[in-house]
Structure formats: C-alpha cells, structure tokens
Amino acid sequence: MLEQAKNTTEYIKRIIGDFQPEFGIILGTGLGGLVTEIDVKYELLYSMIPDFPIATVEFHTGKLIFGELGGRKVMAMSGRFHYYEGYSMQEITFPIRVMKILGVQRVFISNACGCLNPDYRKGDLMILEDHINLQGDNPLRGRNYDVFGPRFPDMSAPYDAEMITKAKAIADKNNIRTHIGTYVSVMGPNLETRAEYKFLRIIGGDVVGMSTVPEVIVANHMSMPVFAISVITDEGFPETLKPVSIPEIVAVAQAAEPKLTFILKELIANL
Fold it and tell me: pLDDT digits over 208-243, tens only?
C-alpha cells in the first residue's frame, strides 16, 4: 500500500507541478456542488490515476480536483468510496494516504445521513464531534506503516475542537440550523429497520450513515486534523418510520447543500 501511495502521488505531482494543496475535501452523496465554488486548476478522473479506486455509486462523479477555495489551495474528491461497494477499508482510505504524501494539512468531510435524535429534522446539518464505528472492519487492520503513524493511535478527540467551534459560530451567525453530535457508521447499503434505528439511538448515536469513519480513523492515524459535517436527509424515528428512496435522499441533500457549502467555504477561508 505504501508503494502504491507513492506511485499514485508521483503521477499526480507530474500533472499538478508545484501546486501545493493545504486542505483535502471529501464530498458526500448529493453534495458535489462545492466544486462549483472552487477555482479549478487541475481535474483528474479517478479512472486515469494509477492504483486509485473508482467510484461506482450513482451521484458520485469520480474526479480529483485541485484549485483554490476561499483563497486557500485545496484538493477535493468529487465522489467517495464506501465499504458496501466491495472495496477494502484500505482502498476506501487510500486517498487520505495520498493527501498526506501530497502535503495536505487538514481534512474536511461531508456526508448525507439519517436522523436518530428526535431534536433533529430532515434538512438540518450536524457537525461531528464523535462517532461509533459499526462497520465491522478497520482500515488500520494489518501491517502498520510507522511512516504514517503509530500502531495504536489515540482516538479520544477524532474531530478538531477548534474547527468545530469556528464552524458552529459561522452557522449561528448566518442563522443556519446546525447541531453538534455523534455519527454512527454502518456497513449498508440497506437502510435500517425500526429496531436498528432504536438500537443506534440507545447506544448514543444522533445520526447514522455509511461512510466517513474509515477516512477519519486514517486521518487521525496520520495526525491530520479533521472537520466533518452531515446533511440530515431522512428521519429514522421508529414510531413514525416511513419508506424512503435514494432519489428522495439525494434531493434533500442537494437542497441543503448551499448551507453546507457556505460553512465549509467560510471555515476554510478563516483558518
């Protein structure tokens, strides 16, 4: 994996030259609109990058974008990878390894999720301050590469407190309804049953999704501060649970996306 990451990075560097990204961004389902805010310098299709996974999910375009956002140099993934697609945890998190080698200092992640907390509603945003990994696997399983990080990394504060505080202040100042809570990551791809929603709430989850945590674990392994934010696209309340379709989820994500994009853009500009 280390050699693959080096080879991939060397290929990217041949294209982007001396462009040095400060921040890495991963865009979730239905949340690719941030790309329109980036002053794009380079675009690379995943399919053209050596050893890079290829996004298989509809609504994920599969491009690596380099440019400027809020006056800062960024590297953005338009399209991410999920465990349910059949990728290994190491493949899912491979782009984070590449970001580190390219010199990225901080990681920003967005996702679409379902609501567990009865105080939250569809269309709200939630800033992650903690998570629960129920995906049944871990990207750090197997050989540890000391050049990236320690065998047993600490995860007492997986999300950067300073960025959480700044993002919440930006949201409040601009009357954007935002919560701070815990994200539960499950394997997917099916949505949850009534009993599962109830269980996930009992164990401390505020929202549930199928991504984000693997990337956060690897970023922490490499001492890269992380900020993550969710768009709540559906409500998993057992007593009133109704069927929901993926197009509905994507539509809600796209409707809420301008708020998320605003927060990310302002946060990055003020770091």
Answer: 999 999 999 999 999 999 999 999 999 999 999 999
User: Reduced to 3 states, what is the DSSP secondary structure of residue 216?
Assistant: helix
pLDDT tens-digit map of 139-194: 999 999 999 999 999 999 999 999 999 999 999 999 999 999 999 999 999 999 99
Question: What is the Cα–Cα distance from 206 to 183, expressed in whole angstroms?
Answer: 6
Residue 133, SS3 per DSSP: strand
Which CATH class, in words, describes the domain spanning 2-269?
alpha beta
Question: What is the Cα gyration radius of the chain?
Answer: 18
**Segments making up each domain of the chain, as ranges:** 2-269
Handedness of CA 209, 219, 150, 14 (dihedral sign): positive
Would you say 162 and 267 are in contact if contact means Cβ atoms under 8 Å apart?
Answer: no
